[in-house]
Design goal:
The protein has one domain. It is built from 1 helix and 4 strands, in the order E-E-E-E-H. The strands form 2 sheets. Strands 1-2 form a two-stranded antiparallel sheet. A two-stranded antiparallel ribbon has the order 3-4. The chain is mainly beta and 72 residues long. The longest helix has 7 residues. The model has no long low-confidence stretch (mean pLDDT 78). The protein binds zinc ion (ZN). Zinc ion binds next to strand 4 and helix 1. It comes from Jiella pelagia. This is HNH endonuclease.
Length: 72
Amino acid sequence: MKRCRQCEQEKPVTEFYSHPWFRDGHDNRCIECWGKTMRGRRTTEPPPADHRPKVREETHPRTGMPESLRYD
Ligand SMILES: [Zn+2]
């Protein structure tokens, strides 16, 4: 199971797109949230090719931890 950082629901990893550049190999937003983000697109479509993490990781405002470490 993996928690979506947008809707914060725990879902099986099959509900997330595979992304090799994410540490656990899956996007941190679920397919359903991608569907909401990509308005007008079918929810089964993958994210656009230009969706890549920023070079500098965003850090949590309180802990200063990188966002990718938040749900470990
Ligand atoms: Zn979600």
